[in-house]
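Q: May I have one protein plus its fold?
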Amino acid sequence: MNSGFRPPPPRLNLALDDGTVLAGDHYRSGQDTGRGTVLIRTPYDRRQYRAQAEAWQAQGHDVIVQDVRGRYGSTGTWLPYAAEGQDGAETARFLEREGLLNGGLILAGASYDAHCALEASLRLETDGHRLRAAAVVAMVPALGLYETARNPDGSARLSDRIGWWHMHGFTAESRDPLTIAELERRCLEASARGVADAMPANIYGAHAPGQWDRLWSAPKLDLATRYGDCKTPLLVVSGHRDFFVREALELAGAWDAGNTGFLTGPWGHRLTADLDPSAAAALSSHGGLMAKIQEFLDGADARPFTREFTPSREGAEPWEPSDLTRLRAAINPPVPAECELSS
C-alpha cells in the first residue's frame, strides 16, 4: 500500500442559472474556527491547487477551488475577462444557500484568479443581495484585458500575451507553451505587421481572431470608478519584480479610498517562488506570506496599511512599514519576457 496516497477532495458541482455546470473541489478544514471559507476560481485547473488549498486549511479555513466557465471540468464557453463577476457571485450565493460557508466568505486568488475574486466581490456589493464577502485577497492581480496586454506606458506586452493566449486563451485545457523560436518569430512578425495575425484561425479556431482583437481593443480600466465604492476589506499582495505591480498599487489606492492592506517584497509574478534561498528562509522563519495574510484577515492592522518584506539578519523583523506613494516612485516593473505565465 502506498502510505503517501491522499484521496482527492470531494467534488462540489454547481449548475448556474443558464445551465452551465461549474466543477469545484471542496477542502474542509475539519475545524469550527469561524475563520471563513476561501473561494478560489481559476482557469488553470482546480486539481493543481491542492497545496494552496492545504495551506489555507492549515490556517483553519475551508476552501473551495472551482474551474471557471469553459475550463477543465466546467462546461460553457471560455471567454477570458467576461463572466467572472456574475459566475463568482452566483457561486457565492449557492454556497450560502446550501449552508456551505464555514464562517465568512473570503474571495482569494493570484493573477487571473485575483481578477475573479475582485469581480465577484464587486458583483456581490452591487447586485442588491444581502451576502457580502468578508474579505478579498488579490495577489499579483491581472486586472483586465488592457492591463494584461499593455505595459504602464501603453506599449504592448507582445511576448507575454502571445504566449499566454496560445496556452490558455481559446481551449478548455491549456496547450503546451510555444517554443522559444516560434514565440520569437511571432513577436517579430507582430512588431512588423501588427498583432492581428498572431492568433490565426486555422490553428486556434474561427472564434480566435475575434477574441484576440478584443484583447487589443479593450479600454483601460478606470479603477477608481470601478472599485472606489467597494467596502469589502481588500488585501493586495504584489512584488517589486511583478510586471503588474503598477496596476496593483493603483488598485490599492482606488479601492474605497484606500481601505486596503498592501504587502510587497522582492519577488515577481510567481510570488515567493521567485525568492533566493536565503530570502525564502527569512520569510519562512516568520510564517511566510500566509502568516501576514492571516493577520490581515484577523484584523491585526488598522487599514490602510502597507508592509514591505526586506530580508534581514536572522531574528530581525523583515516586514517594515512602507507607503504606496514611496513605492510608486521607487518601483520600476520589468517588461515580461517569458510566456509560460499564468496571468
